[in-house]
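Support reply, case 0932

Customer input (verbatim):
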Amino acid sequence: MLWKLRLLWWRMDKAALAFAAFFGVVVGALVFAFTLVVAQRDSDADRLREFHARSLDCLARNVYYEARGESLVGQSRLTTSLLSGRSLAAPFSRSI
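Our regenerated output:
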C-alpha cells in the first residue's frame, strides 16, 4: 500500500499542489495583516477614548475648584471661558 502512495506522488502533477500552497500562504498573510490592522485601529480608538475621558475629567475638576460657589450659569460661563481661552493652550485647543 505504501508503494502505491509513493507511485501516486511521483506521477502526480505538482504544479497544482504548488499553486494551492502558494495561494494558501498569500491568503494567510493577508488575513494576518488584516487582523493586525484591525487590532491597531481598535487600540488607537481606545487610546483616543481614554484621552478624551481624561480631558473631560480635567475640565470638570477645574470647573469644580474654580467655581464651586457659583451658580450653574457661572459655572457654564467659566467653562466657556476655559474652552475659548486659547492663549496658553493653543496647540491643545482642539482636544476637548
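We compared this against your earlier run and they match. Two observations from our side: The helical segments are 2-11, 14-66, 72-84. Residues 44-84 form one domain. Please reopen the case if you see a mismatch on your end.
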